Amino acid sequence: MTATMTDTPPPAAPKADSAGTRSGRSVGQILMIVAGALLLVAAVRSITGSDQLTSEGQVSAALGLAVPIGLAGLAGLWSERSGVVNIGLEGMMILGTFGAGWIGWQSNPWLGLLCGVGFGVLGGLVHAVATITFGVDHIVSGVAVNLLALGITQYLAKIFFSEGGAADAGGNPKQSPPVETLPSVDVPGLSDGLKSLENHHWFLISDIAGILGGLVTDLSVVTIFAALLFVGSWWLLWRTPFGLRLRSCGENPIAAESLGVNVYKYKYAAVAVSGGLAGLGGAFLALVTSHTYLEGQTGGRGYIGLAAMIFGNWRPGGLAMGAGLFGYSDALQLRNGGETVHALLLLLVVLLAGLAGWKLYRKAHWQAGISLLVAALVLLWYLFTDEVPSDFVGATPYVVTLLVLSLSAQRLRMPKADGMRYRKGQGK
Q1: What would the 3-class secondary structure string for 253-264 be?
Q2: Do 421 and 8 touch, CB atoms closer than 8 A?
């Protein structure tokens, strides 16, 4: 008897919780990492004079750009924790943008938001039927969902937005008419006080004030809801029996089935939720970022969301940090151009030097040497230039994605049965 590479492994004692605990970080470690990052960014801001690095506007823009990436990553986390690889997140986000724009301009943005989630769920169910019921390779199915979503939305946009009332309201084959704005909130008094502190440009104090100001100023209600989804997902997946059963399907579905878990049901639920979260990320782009559906407005954020999920080691906290990092780098290149991105080169030099020191401590001499060499080259680039070329500035989010994944690859642990084919009855 032979077995393919995609077959589920034989039953084994589940160790998902213990492995997940070992791979996580304590609260103290996370606080130390955050404090170190703040000190480093504040130092770079003071040395380079690039006050935009920690300004309220920069952080607010970064938060808005991080939300759809974070929702895409959270969608991937739900799916992959159940054992289903979801490369189709980009397509589900595209469906969400179209659904939100289509219904949003005809009725109101709240119904558009719900429709965006619903369209994403439909995309998730297509992926679930293909992978769970029919056993199609997960990567093939995900790519098919991306292609189908792109083709379907382009076709429907030409039908619904290029003539009649939609055309009169400003629609065309590549975009919907404008949609009303969803409400946003400020914290009265606090926003102005933090802005005043930021304007003093004090070391660390003004940096913290700028960061906090960006988190409490002009905050969309969808952003608040997305933050609650992260907390709720952590609680549901790691603190409830439902979450334990769902994660067991991603670690060893045969062992889970032998203990009475309906593996198909949990996988379907996880992939449907995954599609809904991706659709919500797409709806955010259509209703909050641009107030209209635009062809191609996802811009690969589904794939960057997957990168953020991997960076976060398939856990919500690390995923949120990864999404914030990618959103921050995207906001830098959109708001401030080559001069501010140039200041980040100095930050990269420090990080590479620190990585080299860590590799030397771990006796990985070749890796330490490569890190020092790259750090020296980046330092020369910083010293002999005044700004980063515009072509490179536009690629900043994708370069950050590659760097982060390459530096974090050694500590990753994906669910053991992620992407493997499972057939009902194997555990009986």
Answers
A1: HHHHHHCCCCHH
A2: yes
- Pairwise CA distance, residues 6 & 28, whole Å: 39
Each residue of 334-347: pLDDT tens digit?
776 667 778 878 88
pLDDT of the residue at 138:
95
Residue with tokens 């990320």: 281
Residue corresponding to tokens 């965006």:
116
CA 129 centroid distance within chain: 25
What distance in Å separates the CA atoms of residue 176 and residue 305, rounded to the nearest whole number? 25
Structure pTM? 0.87
Tokens standing for 349?
């030099």
Distances (CA, A) of 205 to 31, 190, 196, 340: 17, 15, 11, 20
Complete DSSP assignment for 289-347: ISSS-BTTTTTTHHHHHHHHHHHTTTSHHHHHHHHHHHHHHHHHHHHTHHHHHHHHHHH
**Residue 119 token pair:** 């369209």
- Residues (pLDDT < 50) of the chain are 1-6, 9-23
- Output the six-digit token pair for 389: 């070329």
Contacts of 169 (CB under 8 A, 6+ apart): 105, 177, 178
- Sign (positive or negative) of CA dihedral 116, 119, 123, 124: positive
Cα–Cα distance for residue pair 107/177, rounded to 1 Å: 12
The tens digit of pLDDT for each residue in 364-420 reads 888 888 888 988 998 898 888 887 777 777 777 777 767 766 666 556 788 998 888
Name the pairing type of β-strands 219-220 and 184-185. Answer: antiparallel
Closest listed residue to residue 311, CA positions, set 413, 397, 418, 405: 405
Structure letter (DSSP) for residue 174: T
Other CB atoms within 10 Å distance of the CB of residue 12: 11
